């Protein structure tokens, strides 16, 4: 067998069949996928349905705490979950670069399979394209997730209400800093690990314990700052946060301090923001903390009535400042 | 408890705020901080919202990106666009607009090979792995970064790495402060005290700032970057003003030696020579920049690659960055602030860098 991917594997002929059988069918193994029809037949998805799609283009493909494979499953599972849905099925499209190591491809497919298994979702349909060397950076993955909604009413960024509590399911900034560290080989960031994780089980427990919540969002690109600003705009409210209460690991704090970055603007891949009526906050927190992915969950602030739609931070020393929407990619500073 | 945590302690900060209020004794104080990291810390920590109302906080010309002149940006954009050049830079330079609003981001999208690096030494690794290209590193920054760049040149020579050169745009802090204070008449600076840059002072020590107190009778206090560090420095300034005893002192002794770092200065001396430099918003300041010495001309991008500096019209109409950098106005006074000039579409340099004072006002304050 070849050790690297040839253009033939995207031809639709025998070479494609071999790749599908030996790699994708083998690791994603499930009867719905194995039928290999043009589309997957799903009988147990009931309206209302949540659908979400995302494309994954991370460099490097492997990083401490995960890989593009785990991200491609976790990211989509989490997006579907944020609507109060139980993610059930995932489709996945691969764009692969000619010359990609087959061993690497297989290990990333195994990562996807493992992540799907933990989340309890099936990868039921897919597509593979192989593009000439240089036409993509090793591997791009698109996944679409689908699931039945069980929360009624469904959470939405438009539903934050004055007096609601703002919760976060754990420490912030780990994923963004990990990617930066491993991309640039920054040895002083060696103790930072991505938080990539499936949150669907935890979300289900939170809604079981606390009842319908007003808002669920995962603070991915743009971090906590971007997500809370978006919610404030959508809901027409402001928020007041306690900096002291926002969980950030010491390693992330010191790495950010060195690079001139703010952890509240860095991406997370295994955290959610939950906004709900104050009297149910403790139940929701307890449900989060009972999950391995919510041990460091905390209440970080309150929704307030100011119509300016701004997020204000009460700082550790007792001062106040705006937590504004980020502009572009966070760039490390000169000195 | 780490230093960082201890120096964010609300109780300690309250004690220092009370000491500051006592020292002010009802008087006002206009202080300027010279370092962009101070600017960010003062805003990010929320310290600014706690300072007594009688304190006016001004941000000076200490953000390296902010003071990089249009002429120099145009020159490195031209360099970056050349064939067989890898332009290796610190990240925050990517957003700096040159003439016509063009940035390194635009150059990159148009095909320039731009790499973000985190230390000058990393550039040598790039040079070794790109033997067919010349790696150009823009030497931007103050006395803090110049020694590391000097060390990189020396390492390159020692390791016989031939495809590496520096486009030196380094600037020196004391000449800029002199220029601010030497202005007269309508342009005269209205600054009563300086918060001196902690990082730069680790290299320089405190002697180069002596003229502040000796000639201008203005207190200068070297301060650290945590809220309590800054408050302590402000207390020392206010006490000097109260006692009419201006002096240049070091309130950051855990990092700064009064004599600075002679070894780092020797490295700078070996590789660089002082030269006139263009400061964005301020103009030409004599002997305020560092050029590569002729002995190292093979690693001087300006010489080796024949960089031409083309004069451009200096600022956009209406932009008051010059007045902001000189401490004459605060950013919100500028008619463009927040309307025509935002971090998304920065007109002037102070809005470009995350450490620029206009960007800090926009990002952290209600407006």
Automatic annotation (TrEMBL), chain A:
<comment type="similarity">
    <text>Belongs to the HypE family.</text>
</comment>
<dbReference type="InterPro" id="IPR011854">
    <property type="entry name" value="HypE"/>
</dbReference>
<dbReference type="InterPro" id="IPR036921">
    <property type="entry name" value="PurM-like_N_sf"/>
</dbReference>
<feature type="domain" description="PurM-like C-terminal">
    <location>
        <begin position="161"/>
        <end position="313"/>
    </location>
</feature>
<dbReference type="InterPro" id="IPR010918">
    <property type="entry name" value="PurM-like_C_dom"/>
</dbReference>
<dbReference type="GO" id="GO:0051604">
    <property type="term" value="P:protein maturation"/>
</dbReference>
<dbReference type="InterPro" id="IPR016188">
    <property type="entry name" value="PurM-like_N"/>
</dbReference>
<dbReference type="Pfam" id="PF00586">
    <property type="entry name" value="AIRS"/>
</dbReference>
<protein>
    <submittedName>
        <fullName>[NiFe] hydrogenase maturation protein HypE</fullName>
    </submittedName>
</protein>
<dbReference type="Pfam" id="PF02769">
    <property type="entry name" value="AIRS_C"/>
</dbReference>
<feature type="domain" description="PurM-like N-terminal">
    <location>
        <begin position="37"/>
        <end position="148"/>
    </location>
</feature>
<dbReference type="InterPro" id="IPR036676">
    <property type="entry name" value="PurM-like_C_sf"/>
</dbReference>
TrEMBL record, chain B:
<dbReference type="GO" id="GO:0070025">
    <property type="term" value="F:carbon monoxide binding"/>
</dbReference>
<comment type="similarity">
    <text>Belongs to the HypD family.</text>
</comment>
<dbReference type="InterPro" id="IPR042243">
    <property type="entry name" value="HypD_1"/>
</dbReference>
<keyword id="KW-0408">Iron</keyword>
<dbReference type="GO" id="GO:0051539">
    <property type="term" value="F:4 iron, 4 sulfur cluster binding"/>
</dbReference>
<protein>
    <submittedName>
        <fullName>[NiFe] hydrogenase maturation protein HypD</fullName>
    </submittedName>
</protein>
<dbReference type="InterPro" id="IPR042244">
    <property type="entry name" value="HypD_2_sf"/>
</dbReference>
<dbReference type="GO" id="GO:0005506">
    <property type="term" value="F:iron ion binding"/>
</dbReference>
<dbReference type="Pfam" id="PF01924">
    <property type="entry name" value="HypD"/>
</dbReference>
<dbReference type="GO" id="GO:0051604">
    <property type="term" value="P:protein maturation"/>
</dbReference>
<keyword id="KW-0479">Metal-binding</keyword>
<dbReference type="InterPro" id="IPR002780">
    <property type="entry name" value="Hyd_form_HypD"/>
</dbReference>
